[in-house]
Amino acid sequence: MKKAAITGSYSTKVGQLEGATCMSLHTEAGLGALDDAGLAVSDIDGLLCAYSFTEPHLMLASVFAEYVGMEPAYASAVSMGGVTACMLVMQAAALVEAGYCRHVLVVTGDNRLSGMRGNAVQALAEVGNQQYEQPYGMTIPAAYALVAQRYMSEFGVTSEQLAAIAVTMREHAALNPKAHMDAPITVDDVMSSRFIATPLHLLDCCLISDGGAAVVVSAADAAANLKQPRIDVLGSGQGHTHEYIVAAPSLTDYGCKNSAADALGRAGLKQSDIDVVEIYDSFTITLLAELESMGFFERGEAGAAAAAGDLKIGGKLPCNTHGGLLSYGHSGAAGGMFHVVEAVEQLRGSAKGRQVDGAELAFVHGDGGILSAHCSIVLGRA
Fold first, then answer.
1. Rounded distance, CA 342 to CA 26, Å?
2. What is the value of pTM for the model shown?
3. Among 172, 247, 271, 310, which residue is least crowded by beta carbons within 10 Å?
4. Rounded to whole angstroms, what are the CA distances from 91 to 137, 204, 239, 356?
5. Active-site positions?
6. Which helix (H) or strand (E) holds 232?
7. Is residue 36 part of a domain?
8. What's the start-to-end Cα distance of the chain, in Å?
9. What pLDDT does residue 276 have?
């Protein structure tokens, strides 16, 4: 029997949620995950939170615990950008495996759209290296555009292939009633949307959303009598090569190569064993580059596979079945947690119209910074 399992999960509706706050989203998501697991606040002895742009509390986990009347034996908050959610799940699994906790609540959420309006883009434009990037106007889309340009030059990736990824994500989001964007788009729509940073168009970029998501990670014996079938944490791994794009050792090979190898190796699995993947897609090129770097496709093949429909539900490798950051929504650290929650739903067989038939093994990946920090997790249906 595995030592750690996800026993509860929940995600809020995503989009522009007027009146929502960081704490209201944390509360809805956290209590929703507890209810899903059949647990009470008093059952939780571990609490892990991420961070918030709209309410930048110094000790977010302590603030949330106070807010909901929780007195955990262990509490911590982590700020690692888009990789945070997967890292928190990995940390929660380690806590229960080490015997420090029985049930760890991992909660994320932010009202990044309604709470920041246009300031979210400005805030993200200020994360570059203060000496070598910020003075020259480097933005996050511009950094990812460098990656896209290199892939186009080295592996023949086309804008149409990147657009096919965006179209697939929107098709999946249309099957999800909680998604931020569900209106159909075409490759032509993506190609005709305005450039944000050449060659990335507007529809190659993720959304800015309000939303929250949470999971409960439990010790295996503590999971045995809960109301949901447990989803085992089979393996996890991290990879770190740089922080700023100016220092990246490669624009085509990243730490996700190591995180994926470690996660799959610890699970005793290989890429071809995986039934569904939920992979960070801040931009279309992010998803393409990570799929290849992690070994799900050979170099130069992921774009053609996307254009052929291989990433669709029913395709060879169903990917981001909830719609991903590109169409389901992206609200800070909760963006990565949406991927975890979707993997749980797929493995439970509760994804309804977007269900992947016979899904037993899922691979989840988070990416922080400019393809800087990586965490991969392999989940399995018990």
1. 18
2. 0.97
3. 247
4. 35, 31, 15, 28
5. 280, 328
6. strand 231-240
7. yes
8. 9
9. 98
Residue-number span of the structural domain to which 81 is assigned:
4-116+209-222
pLDDT over 60 at 1, yes or no: no
Q: Give SS3 for 277.
A: strand
Q: Which residues contact 177 (CB under 8 A, 6 or more apart)?
A: none
Supply angle C-alpha 134, 191, 289, rounded to 5. 60
69 occurs within a structural domain: yes
Structure tokens at 355: 């269900």
Choose among 296, 250, 344, 313: nearest CA to 32: 344
Q: Which residue has the tokens 């994926």?
A: 260
Low-confidence winner among 116-120, 223-227, 260-264, 266-270 (lowest mean pLDDT): 116-120
User: Given pLDDT bands bounded at 50, 70 and 90, which one contains residue 372?
Assistant: very high
CA distance 304 to 308: 6
d(CA 161, CA 294): 19
Q: Which two tokens stand for residue 165?
A: 């990824």
Q: In the 8-state DSSP scheme, what is residue 229?
A: P
Residue 23: inside a domain = yes
> Which residues, including other chains, have CB under 8 Å from residue 170's CB and lie 6 or more apart?
181, 182, 183, 184, 185, 323, 326, 327
Residue where the block lists tokens 């800015």: 208
Structural domains in the chain (count):
1
Name the nearest CA neighbour of 110 among 64, 55, 49: 55
- Tokens coding 381: 């249906």
CATH number at residue 107: 3.40.47.10
| CB half-sphere exposure, 49, CA atoms < 13 A | 28
* Secondary structure of residue 135 in the 3-state scheme: helix
Q: Could you identify the residue written with the tokens 């190609």?
A: 191
Q: Could you report the per-residue pLDDT of 205-257, keeping only the tens digit for each? A: 999 999 999 999 999 999 888 889 999 999 999 999 999 999 999 999 999 99
Percent of the chain topping pLDDT 90: 91
pLDDT digits 0-9 by tens, 105-157: 999 999 999 998 667 667 766 778 888 888 888 889 999 999 999 999 999 99
Q: Which residues contact 119 (CB under 8 A, 6 or more apart)?
A: none
Burial, 76: exposed, middle or buried (Cβ in 10 Å; 0-12, 13-18, 19+)? middle
3-state secondary structure of 6: strand
Tell whether omega for the bond before 199 is within 30 degrees of 0, i.e. cis: yes
